[in-house]
Design goal:
heterodimer; A: 381 residues; alpha/beta; 4-stranded parallel beta sheet; 16 helices; B: 320 residues
């Protein structure tokens, strides 16, 4: 079937598959599968293998902001005693859940909550609030990161993954097939390989960063599905055939989260005379699934996510990505909602315009201050 | 050696540390929890500090490494404390504590044997028992004196802590309150609570309620396994991701101590406590227990506590 489907048809199918369970479309119908709410770097290959439907509240917060509805949700969250100093994703979704409203309704209710700390420690904290709301089991996956003894970390993570499998087998009444998990990991790897081609195309082709900020969605939501792999292969072909970009323009690297509330996801109006040739955000889901067996592959992919790396390693990786992009300067977004990414730009060897913004709350940005900083960097260059 | 410690997850059984309390100096690390930001500043600027040990348990503490990475002449160690507190986590934590010992030995060229650790565990049992004994008398003693005594102890070598007198004035019972929060860096807050006519009858602070909940260290062949087991058996921090257990234990203690209200103190940008507050406040509201919140900017800030607490005390009077 996927060989016959066009890019747009696959995109529509993937969207439909993901959102059909949301309350706006489900109309009271209960999901047939067990439902998990997961954080962005959860080993979803395990869930997919056990036929569990998984949903990403963070990702939905981006949708809410893109639909222009985040302010009401943030206000509701604050009224509900969750400070707006907290992550905008959590405040936005807590507002949705309290109001039972959202551009696509709310996701199907969870049977289990799975939180990881390989992106930040805020997400497991937020998932505790969700556990209190929904009275369902909360599983926290602890990824030690880069520092420390690798063998001990791998043993710890492997045991947690085995325990996760055991708990989910109990939930579903199914038995996992590890060879199928391996196949799903292969799918994820291929989706990522295709995505990496797309990222590379951005350096020299006439490609708006908006296409990648929005386009990465399926790498987050459904990277291990065969249709996702096909989607990105088609997208890569399309990107590689785009016209060459105007190389005379100054090249900017968007260092930080997209601004989800912005129609273009970045400050296009302030960068009209530049080309955005790369972003670190679009590399975060390029996970490395290398390893000799399923557990080592999952460990390497999920323990060494970008925000779980040391500053030294982050600097090295970022420097490499920036160099490959050919960027002349960086627009560094200090995201109020993400302290972990706040330090990513430390020690980088590139001129930076540092802006204080929030990925969800459009009111946080001082646009005049942003203009001044970008004008300053232009004058320096 | 003067090693500054940020957290009660750093076992004092391995070597002497100085618990970080307060910093007075230039502040230029915005948008992080003030306690962490001040800790970073202290390590960077205080020449008497030989080292820093800190956990990776929240988003602010995750950033510490990035700020201290360029320090070459001090011992800087990030302790990977598990985000879980089950048997899986204990095993990993034990390995991590062993790494911590090895790193200390290598950096300072000292010896830290298993036997030394066992001896220190015994001393800690005695010290904790002493603090526990005082904790049981909270409604009769001046809370500010009690916390001051603990903070002073935590600056001393362990040998000097054991048997250290904890002189606390006796007080008349005021309106009983339960105190929730992270390390109470600014002790004027404790004074302010009592000046407002409130008496702290229980708390879950790391240096008090959580410290006294530590089980005794047992003599063990594997000292690191024992350390890990004990530290993960104490009352939980919100960084250990089980808010339900925190609520159950705290509500039980609030009920037992007949606290009339709860004072919730936290640093701005401290997300574990901010998320905890969102559910804690609701739990209290459902039980009809008034709560007030004090938000602090840094380790010297008092969050206008005097005014907040005065108002809260009046509220408790009216609700009685």
């Amino acid at each position: 079937m996927s060989e016959e489907m066009s890019f747009n048809e696959i995109q529509a199918q993937l969207m439909m598959d993901y959102y059909m369970g949301f309350s706006k479309y489900a109309r009271g119908r209960k999901p047939e599968k067990k439902v998990a709410w997961v954080t962005s770097f959860t080993p979803i290959e395990i869930l997919e293998a056990l036929d569990i439907a998984y949903y990403y509240p963070e990702s939905y917060a981006a949708v809410v902001a893109a639909s222009g509805k985040e302010q009401k949700m943030l206000e509701q969250s604050e009224a509900n005693e969750l400070s707006l100093d907290c992550c905008g994703y959590s405040c936005c979704i807590e507002g949705c859940l309290e109001l039972q409203k959202g551009p696509r309704g709310i996701p199907p209710l969870p049977d289990v909550l799975i939180a990881t700390n390989n992106q930040c420690n805020t997400l497991p904290n937020w998932w505790n609030i969700l556990a209190k709301r929904y009275h369902v089991p909360l599983i926290v996956l602890d990824y030690p990161g880069e520092r420390g003894n690798r063998e001990a970390a791998m043993a710890y993570v492997k045991t947690q993954h085995e325990d996760l499998i055991h708990q989910l087998e109990k939930l579903t009444g199914k038995t996992i097939d590890l060879s199928y998990v391996n196949e799903l990991i292969e799918n994820s790897s291929k989706s990522i390989a295709a995505w990496n081609r797309i990222v590379k195309s951005m350096h020299t082709r006439e490609i708006s960063p908006t296409e990648l900020f929005d386009g990465i969605v399926f790498l987050i939501l459904s990277r291990c599905k065969p249709l996702t792999q096909k989607f990105y292969e088609l997208m890569a072909q399309d990107m590689e055939e785009k016209p060459l970009a105007d190389m005379s323009k100054k090249k900017a690297f968007w260092l930080g989260y997209p601004l989800w509330y912005h129609p273009k996801r970045y400050l296009e109006e302030l960068l009209a005379d530049c080309r955005v040739v790369g972003s670190n955000y679009i590399t975060w889901w390029s996970l490395d699934y290398s390893g000799v067996d399923v557990f080592e592959r999952l460990f390497n992919a999920y323990n060494y996510t970008f925000l779980n790396l040391s500053q030294k390693t982050r600097n090295r990786k970022l420097q490499q990505v920036i160099q490959e992009s050919g960027a002349d300067f960086a627009v560094t977004v200090h995201n109020k909602s993400c302290k972990c990414d706040y330090v990513s730009a430390r020690g980088l060897n590139i001129p930076q315009a540092e802006l204080a913004a929030d990925m969800i709350d459009r009111n946080f940005l001082d646009i005049e201050d942003a203009k001044r900083k970008l004008d300053l960097i232009r004058s320096i260059l | 050696m003067r090693i500054l410690s940020l957290s009660s997850f750093v076992p004092e059984a391995i070597c002497d540390t100085v618990r970080f309390t307060q910093y007075s100096g230039e502040r230029n690390i915005p948008l992080y929890c003030g306690y962490v930001a001040d800790f970073i500043s202290q390590v960077q600027h205080d020449e008497s500090v030989d080292g820093a040990i800190f956990p990776k348990t929240c988003d602010s503490s995750r950033s510490i490494r990035s700020y201290l990475d360029n320090i070459r002449d001090k011992f800087v160690y990030e302790l990977i404390v598990p985000a879980r507190h089950d048997k899986l986590a204990a095993s990993y934590y034990a390995a991590e504590l062993r790494n911590y010992r090895e790193a200390l030995v290598k950096h300072f060229q000292i010896e830290i044997t298993d036997e030394t650790i066992r001896t220190r565990m015994g001393m800690l049992n005695a010290r904790n028992a002493q603090v526990r004994n005082m904790y049981k008398q909270l409604e009769k003693i001046r809370y500010a004196d009690y916390l001051k005594a603990i903070h002073a102890m935590l600056q001393l070598p362990l040998e000097e802590q054991v048997g250290q007198s904890m002189d606390c004035a006796e007080v008349e019972m005021g309106k009983p309150v339960y105190l929730v929060g992270s390390f109470l860096a600014n002790l004027t807050l404790a004074d302010a609570i009592e000046k407002a006519g409130l008496t702290v009858v229980g708390d879950n602070l790391p240096e008090s309620g959580r410290l006294v909940s530590l089980p005794e260290y047992a003599p063990a062949d594997d000292v690191f396994a024992e350390l890990a087991k004990v530290h993960l058996s104490a009352r939980l921090s919100p960084t250990q991701n089980n808010f339900q257990e925190i609520l159950e234990r705290d509500m039980a203690e609030i009920e037992r101590s007949q606290a009339a209200g709860v004072v919730f103190v936290m640093q701005k940008y401290c997300e574990p406590y901010q998320y905890l507050y969102a559910v804690y406040e609701k739990e209290l509201a459902a039980r009809g227990i008034p709560c007030t919140k004090i938000m602090l900017a840094d380790t010297e800030d008092d969050g206008r506590a005097a005014l907040v607490l005065e108002t809260f005390a009046e509220l408790l009077e009216v609700s009685a």
